Structures are given as structure tokens and as C-alpha cells.
Amino acid sequence: MGIADGLAGLVVAIAIVVGILAIVEFWPLVIFGVELVVVAVAGGVHALLGRRVVVAESDGEIWSWTVKGQLASVRPAARVARAIREGVAFPPGGRFQRATSGEAA
Questions:
Q1: What is d(CA 84, CA 101) in angstroms, rounded to the nearest whole number?
Q2: Is the pTM here over 0.70, yes or no?
């Protein structure tokens, strides 16, 4: 039991204090990182599966179709574009509304 044992004990004590401080100081950063990942995943899921509204506007009329998900919105948008281009009836399931002044372009 000499000075070497005392220094070894001091080094161990300093290592324990530094370890505790590292945990206390960096733990909030770790939690924040986990929260960011969770929010990013939730935002991605919402972007892919969230509700979308496909809208067709003309002078005096507004038609809209509600769908779930970005991929599901592509098909109705293509059908509406085709109907407008070919001059045929819009796909079924849409909601019709008369445009008030300033709503439709």
C-alpha cells in the first residue's frame, strides 16, 4: 500500500467521475437522436400513407377525389387528366362543387 496504490485509486475515481459526467451530459443527446429518428419515420409513413386530395378545377366547377397514400393518388390523377384531355366524364367517386368567385382559375 504505497503511493502507487493511491494513484491507482485516484485514476479509478477520476475515470468513474468522467464516466458519470459523460452519461449525464450525452444522454439527452442520445435521446434527442432517437426522437429525431422516430419523427423521421413517422413523417415518412405519413407522407406515403397520408390522405391526398386529387382536384380538377375549371371555370365554374371544382371536382375532388380523396385517396389514401401518394401512390394511390397517381392513378386517379392520371384518370382525371385523361378525362380532361379526351373530353369524357370524370371518374366516379368525385365530389362536385360550384366555384365561387376567385376559387377556380
A1: 22
A2: no
- Return phi, psi of residue 2, to 5°: -130, -155
Q: How far apart are CA 83 and CA 61, in angstroms?
A: 15
- Sheet containing strand 51-58, strands side by side: 51-58, 61-68, 95-98
Asked if residue 104 has pLDDT above 60, the reply is no
Query: CB under 8 Å, gap of 24 or more: what pairs does 3-11 form?
Result: none
Q: Which of 84, 24, 18 is nearest to 54 (CA)?
A: 84
Neighbours of 26 (CB within 10 A): 10
Per-residue pLDDT at 73 exceeds 70: yes
